[in-house]
Amino acid sequence: MACAKAGDHASAVAHYRLLAQRASQQHLTHRDLHVCHSNCAASLLALGLHAQALGSAERALALMQAAAGEWQDHANAKAVPRHGSLGTLVLASIEAELLT
Q1: Which of 16, 17, 32, 71 is packed most tightly, with the most Cβ within 10 A?
Q2: How far is the C-alpha of 86 from the C-alpha of 17, rounded, in Å?
């Protein structure tokens, strides 16, 4: 989001939260909705709001794990072998996002 890139993390958090709220109220899902929560966590970290950032990061992780579960169900139905740990990749992705 442009606000976060410009350093206006307070506005970025407000936008991310509004997006997440609207998606929730309208029961909308999207395979990339976790990015909203992850970016919100990054902006909250930039503001020094660590506890709130953790909450957003946990929501992002939960959404990614749910999507991974759906993918795994689909993969199992097609007998595609799974290699590596998607959970480890998810956690590393969020940590990287939070550290940048």
Answers
A1: 16
A2: 26
